[in-house]
């Protein structure tokens, strides 16, 4: 299978998983959970799984100085802060609104690539980006009126953009995704645990909350993150970011079918715009002969 086609498949599966798990995670909030504790559990539960995979594959855990620096920069500023901010925003605004605001990150990715790496987008990519951003704004609703929650969600998008760009322009690109994620999970588990203890956000919960948290952990930190990283390797940060805008659609569908949320005409228009942007993107790749 062509590398570009693999990247599209990896990215789309990852975005579907990321679109489903926020609703699962928020269910645990009524059981005594909170954004920071969920972020901690999300990494704690997959730590032994990543260690097993790395050892099973016979991968070396040795990193040089530059690799360690890249893992810290991209991991802490790009991944740790993204998860803490996004999960915390769920405590103030709805999952759908938070996801929509977080998904302004394709705009931030393109801006970072333009400012720091002088990457220019072609006309099709610019059109896709504009359509995707317009579609995302159609998902906005009145629950986003909480300034703090909205700010947390937007900042999570800024740091996630840094994560994607950092993955694309660092030695991490050439590392095994399982080795990188092992170190990422170790760092996040320690950092978020310290943060949770300082803020007093660790609470005892019923067993159901831990089970649901484990489901979120496996679907996101193990499967979704690895697939997204492979998508970045195959497509680059900008194209992956644009394709990832399918996640808000997944969140809307989950909300309608699972949480009995309403589906407005504006949200339908938003879905059409995002799907149209993805269609144009894939078609343009085919026309350029990059997908065969």
UniProtKB/TrEMBL annotation:
Originating organism: Massilimicrobiota timonensis
Stretches that traverse the bilayer: 7-24, 36-56, 68-87, 93-117, 126-142, 148-166, 178-204, 210-228, 235-259, 265-282
One Pfam family hit: EamA
Keyword RNA-binding found: no
Domain of life: Bacteria
Family annotation (SUPFAM superfamilies): Multidrug resistance efflux transporter EmrE
PANTHER family: ACYL-MALONYL CONDENSING ENZYME-RELATED, SOLUTE CARRIER FAMILY 35 MEMBER G2-RELATED
Family annotation (InterPro entries): EamA_dom, EmrE-like
EamA domain span: 6-138, 148-282
Protein name from the UniProt record: DMT family transporter
């Amino acid at each position: 299978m062509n590398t570009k086609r693999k990247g599209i498949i990896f990215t789309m599966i990852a975005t579907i998983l990321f679109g489903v798990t926020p609703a699962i995670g928020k269910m645990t909030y009524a059981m005594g959970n909170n954004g920071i504790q969920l972020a901690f559990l999300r990494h704690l539960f997959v730590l032994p799984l990543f260690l097993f995979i790395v050892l099973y594959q016979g991968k070396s855990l040795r990193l040089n100085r530059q690799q360690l620096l890249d893992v810290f920069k991209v991991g802490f500023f790009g991944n740790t802060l993204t998860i803490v901010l996004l999960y915390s925003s769920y405590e103030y605004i709805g999952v759908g609104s938070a996801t929509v605001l977080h998904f302004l990150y394709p705009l931030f990715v393109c801006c970072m690539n333009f400012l720091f790496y002088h990457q220019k987008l072609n006309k099709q990519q610019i059109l896709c980006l504009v359509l995707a951003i317009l579609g995302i704004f159609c998902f906005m609703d009145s629950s986003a009126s909480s300034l703090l929650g909205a700010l947390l969600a937007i900042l999570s998008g800024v740091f996630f953009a840094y994560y994607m760009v950092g993955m694309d322009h660092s030695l991490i690109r050439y590392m095994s995704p399982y080795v990188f994620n092992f170190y990422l999970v170790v760092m996040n588990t320690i950092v978020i645990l310290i943060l949770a203890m300082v803020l007093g956000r660790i609470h005892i919960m019923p067993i159901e909350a831990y089970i649901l948290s484990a489901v979120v952990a496996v679907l996101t930190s193990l499967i979704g993150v690895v697939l997204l990283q492979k998508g970045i390797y195959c497509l680059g940060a900008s194209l992956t970011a644009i394709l990832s805008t399918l996640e808000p659609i997944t969140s809307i569908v989950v909300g309608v079918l699972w949480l009995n949320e309403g589906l407005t005409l504006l949200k339908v228009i938003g879905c059409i715009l995002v799907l149209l942007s993805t269609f144009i993107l894939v078609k343009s790749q085919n026309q350029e002969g990059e997908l065969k």
